[in-house]
C-alpha cells in the first residue's frame, strides 16, 4: 500500500477538482501519438506482403520468418527501454527515441529497394516499438489518477487501436485508387509518423516521475530512490509476472484462431486477410468500458477473468461446425480478451511498481507476456498437427479452464491493496 | 505559457507541411496512375478477328498501360510476336486451352483474393475464396482438377509467421480440401512434423500429383508424391521446391536452394525421376517461380525486372544446359497449350 501511496499525487493536487472524472490531457495526447504511429505502421504492414510479391516478384517466405524473429527481439528491447526510462528519469526522451527510430524506417522505405533492405527496416521498426512502449505506459501511469488508471489505459488503447484499424483501410484505399501506389502508401505512412512524432516531441511534457515522487516524500534524496532491479522483483510484482507468464503460455495467438476458423468456414476464408480488423473493432469499442470496470472491481480480477473470453474464443475455433456466426463471435471474444488484458496489465504493473522502477516493471510484465505467448504459439504447433485442429483447441480451452481459477486465487491480494489506497483518497 | 504557444505553432506548421506535401505527392501519383492506366499498352496486338489459337503460351501481360495484368496469348512458334488479350486480369493463370484457372486480387476498400475457373470464352464457371495472396496454380492435364496455393499472412504485431495453403478442387465442384491434412508418409511410415507447409502442386493424372512439403522444425523441404484417393503424401526426396512435371512425365523441374549460408538463392534444376540424377541449369539469377515446360527440352519461368517494379519477363532455358534468354517480354505466369 505504501508503494501506491507514494507515487500517487494527492487527488486534486495535479488536476483541478472538477476534472477528477476526466482523463489527463497527457494520456489523450499520447493516445493520438499512438494513433498516428499505428496508422503509419499498420498501413505499411497491411500492404507489405502484397508489395513484396506483386511489385518485387518475391515470395513472402523469408518475410514471415524474419518477422517472427523480430517479435522476439522487440520483446526483449522493451525491458531495456523501461530500464533506460527509469534510470534517466526522462521517460519521454526514451519514447522520443523509440518513435523517432520507427519514423526513420518509414523514410527508409522510400529509398529502399530489394528484399534485404525492406526486412532490415521492418526489423528496426520493431526495435523502435519495443523501446517506446514501456516508457510511454509509465508516462500514462504518472499522468493519471491511480484510482482511474484502468480507464486511462482504456482511452489510450482505444485511440491506439483506432489507428491500427485506420492504417490498413487507408492503405487499401490508396491501392484501390492507384493500383501500383505502394510508394504513395509509404509517403502517407511517413507523414503520419512525422505528425505523431512531432506531437510527442513538442506537446507532451517531459515529466520526471521519480523526482516528482521524491518531492512528495519528505526526507528522501532529491533525485528520488535510485533504480534497482530488486524493486522489480518485489513480491507482489513477482506474483503478477508469474501469473502473466502462466496465462501467456496458454495464449496461442490470434493467428492460430484465425487459421482454425478459416479451415472450415468459407466466410472466414473470404475475409481472412481482414479478420484482425474485426478483432480490433471489438477491442477499440470495449477498451474504455472494460478499463473502467477494472478500476471498479479490481484490475487483477479483470485481467485474469478476461482469459475466459479467450477460452470461449478457443471453443468457437474448436467447434466442429463452421458457421459465420461462430467466426464473428470468436472475433468479438478476442476483442474482449484484449480489452481486459493489454491496457489492464500495464495499469496493474504501473500501480504495483515503485516509481523508481515503473517503466522497467511495465516493460518486464509485457515482455513476460510476449515471450510466453511466443512459446505458446510454437508449442501449439505440435498440438495442431498431433491432435488435429479441433481437439487441440479444446485441450487449450480445458487447460485454461483450470488455470484461470488458480490464477484468480494467486492474484487475490493485489486488488485489495488498490481498494485500500483508493479508499484513502 | 509563451513556450507552449510556440510549440503549438511549430506543431501546426509541421502538420500543415506534412498534409500539403503528402497530399501533393498523392495527387500527382494518382494522376500519373490514371494516365498510365488509360494509355494504350505498347504491345503488338493480334487482330481481334483472328485471335491466337492452336499451340500457344498463355500468360499474364505485365506491359504497363491499359492492358496491365490481363491474360494474353502468343503463338508458341512466335513468342515475341503479336499477342491476343483476354478480357480477364489474373495474378496467376494456368490453362488447358478449354479451361483456365485464374487467381486474382479483388481490390477495394477491403482487398480480398479469389480463384476462378473459366471456360474457353473466359466466362466464370466456378469461384472460391482464397485466404491470402495468390502464389501458384495448376490444372491437371485433362483440366478436371485444380490446385491453388496462396500465402496466409498474419498482420504485423501478431503473426504465426509465414504459411501457405494449398487446396485441390475438382472442376465438378468437389473440394479435396487442404492437402496439409493428408497423411504424410516417409518410407511407408507416417510422420507428423510440428509444422508443415505445402505448395506448388503439379499433376501426373487425376489421382496422382507432386508437391512441396516443408517442415522448418525438421529442416526439410521434400518433394512428395500425393494420392488423392488415399489422401496420402509420400516423401520422394529432400531439397526440391515447386516441382513441375515434364510433358513426357520423366523429369521434374524445380527450384533448388543453392545458397551456402543461411540465405536463399533458388536455381532451376531438373530431376530425372528414373535415375534420381539432378542437373542444375545455367541460370545465375534467383528464380522464384513454378517452372513451366514449353516442350520436353525447354523450361519457362518469370523474372521481375530490377529497374521496373511490377514488370517481369518470361525467360526460357534449355533443360539440357545452355544460356537463358527472354522468350516473352513483359509477361508473367506462363502456361503452355499443346494441341
UniProtKB/TrEMBL annotation, chain A:
Record flagged with keyword Transmembrane: yes
Domain of life the protein comes from: Bacteria
Location of the protein in the cell: Cell membrane
InterPro entries xref list: MFS, MFS_dom, MFS_trans_sf
Transmembrane segments annotated in the record for this chain: 43-66, 103-124, 159-178, 184-204, 240-259, 271-290, 302-320, 326-348, 360-386, 392-411
Annotated membrane topology: Multi-pass membrane protein
Annotated keywords: Membrane, Transmembrane, Transmembrane helix
Cellular component aspect of the GO annotation: plasma membrane
Entry annotated with the keyword Chaperone: no
GO molecular function annotation: transmembrane transporter activity
Residues in Major facilitator superfamily (MFS) profile domain copies: 26-415
Protein name: MFS transporter
Automatic annotation (TrEMBL), chain B:
A Pfam short name: PD40
SUPFAM superfamilies associated with the record: DPP6 N-terminal domain-like
Protein's name according to its UniProt entry: TolB-like translocation protein
Organism (species): Jiangella ureilytica
